[in-house]
Amino acid sequence: MNTPIFNRVVVIGPGLIGSSILRRIQKDRSIALYTVAADTNPQVCERVRELAIADEVYQDPVQSVKDADCVVLAIPVGAMGEVAKNIIPHMKKGAILTDTGSTKESVIKAIEPYVTSDIVFVPAHPMAGTEFSGPDAGFESLFENRWCLITPTPHTTQAGIDKITKFWQAMGTNIRILDIKHHDKVCAIVSHLPHLIAFTICNTADSLEDEARSEVLDYAASGFRDFTRVASSDPTMWRDVFLNNREAILEMLARFTEDAQAMAKAIRWKDEDYITQTIQKGRRIRKSLIDNKQLQ
Ligand SMILES: NC(=O)c1ccc[n+]([C@@H]2O[C@H](COP(=O)([O-])OP(=O)(O)OC[C@H]3O[C@@H](n4cnc5c(N)ncnc54)[C@H](O)[C@@H]3O)[C@@H](O)[C@H]2O)c1
Ligand SMILES: O=C(O)C(=O)C[C@]1(C(=O)O)C=C[C@@H](O)C=C1
């Protein structure tokens, strides 16, 4: 076997993303020789033991990081700062700290003050997931052919970037190095706003008067169904994303609202060309996703 990328990898938060990482390592031990999982929820720890997807399991993240050469934070973005503050003093000198958070500027701001000069922090974000959460939801091929976005800070070393690049390539992803603010803007439009719209449209449907609401359930095997998949995502994760990428999300929502108003105007004034062009753009985007193999 080739030299493994890491000897001992700790995943803090073995939910959808963390357990998918652990499962992938279990399949490919050239990524890490030994895996440790840590989760403050005792039921998650119990389930990870039952699933046998980590070599060792701890309820206390502080205890779990001893001797690790890579620690992956796969917890909600609002919890990252506190956990980093607690674990960093117990990490091995020279170890890498990385994360999978959906927002980057907030996570970096929360973690950086606690990063000591002997720890390398490499912020990262795998652009892959589902509407499910928890250790049962993960699967080893989740990251296959997806993107992992790495957003180095001015203190991130090239050696750290190279190691995390290898790590995520071994998970099956392609890599892009992105500027931190740019990452948050792009994710606001491709991920955060679509979730906001999905949660909102379900709430709007639910607030209709009784008769129409029951029809939503009867006839929802249409476009609405696709929104309900996205809207069934985890409330804690998404509350944290919305509160931690506020500026970019509000900016994209404002643009979207303007475009929705333009569409409303076109419908009111029967502007066939505008309506047709808008629909055609949507179809083109869908086709390019299929061509780029970004649809499972
Ligand atoms: N779900 C997705 O599609 C997706 C995709 C890419 C990135 N992410 C990001 O990855 C991270 C994990 O998301 P997920 O979907 O795997 O979540 P998840 O809810 O499936 O798992 C998160 C786990 O973290 C644990 N946890 C919460 N607070 C903790 C703490 N303080 N200490 C230790 N454990 C704690 C929870 O008990 C849970 O088991 C989030 O930051 C999210 O933004 C999610
Ligand atoms: O595929 C889904 O259902 C997801 O919600 C995954 C998704 C996304 O919006 O694309 C969600 C959050 C992430 O940070 C990255 C990926």
Detail the topology: elements first, then pairings.
Blueprint: E1 6-12, H1 16-27, E2 32-38, H2 42-51, E3 56-58, H3 61-64, E4 70-73, H4 80-87, E5 96-99, H5 105-111, E6 120-126, E7 147-150, H6 158-170, E8 174-177, H7 180-206, H8 210-218, H9 223-231, H10 235-244, H11 246-268, H12 272-291
Parallel strand pairs: 1-2, 1-4, 2-3, 4-5, 5-6, 7-8
Antiparallel strand pairs: 6-7
Helix pairs in contact: 4-5, 7-9, 7-11
The structure holds nicotinamide-adenine-dinucleotide and prephenic acid.
InterPro entries: 6-PGluconate_DH-like_C_sf, NAD(P)-bd_dom_sf, PDH_C, PDH_N, Preph/Arog_dehydrog, Prephen_DH
Protein name: Prephenate dehydrogenase/arogenate dehydrogenase family protein
Organism: Commensalibacter oyaizuii
Give keywords:
Rossmann fold; 296 residues; binds nicotinamide-adenine-dinucleotide; Preph/Arog_dehydrog; binds prephenic acid; PDH_C; oxidoreductase; Prephenate dehydrogenase/arogenate dehydrogenase family protein; 6-phosphogluconate dehydrogenase C-terminal fold; 2 domains; 6-PGluconate_DH-like_C_sf; eight-stranded mixed sheet
Percentage of residues assigned to helices: 40-55%
What is the beta-strand fraction? 5-15%
Strand order of the largest sheet: 3-2-1-4-5-6-7-8
How many β-strand stretches? 8
Task: Report the top-level CATH class of the largest domain.
Answer: Alpha Beta
Fourth-level CATH superfamily of the largest domain: NAD(P)-binding Rossmann-like Domain
Question: Structural class, from secondary structure content?
Answer: alpha/beta
Q: What separation lies between the terminal Cα atoms?
A: 31 Å
| Known CATH architecture of the largest domain | 3-Layer(aba) Sandwich
N-to-C order of helices and strands: EHEHEHEHEHEEHEHHHHHH
Write down the CATH topology of the largest domain.
Answer: Rossmann fold
Major β-sheet profile: 8 strands, mixed
Domain Prephenate/arogenate dehydrogenase: 7-296
Pfam family, one: PDH_C
InterPro entries: 6-PGluconate_DH-like_C_sf, NAD(P)-bd_dom_sf, PDH_C, PDH_N, Preph/Arog_dehydrog, Prephen_DH
Protein name: Prephenate dehydrogenase/arogenate dehydrogenase family protein
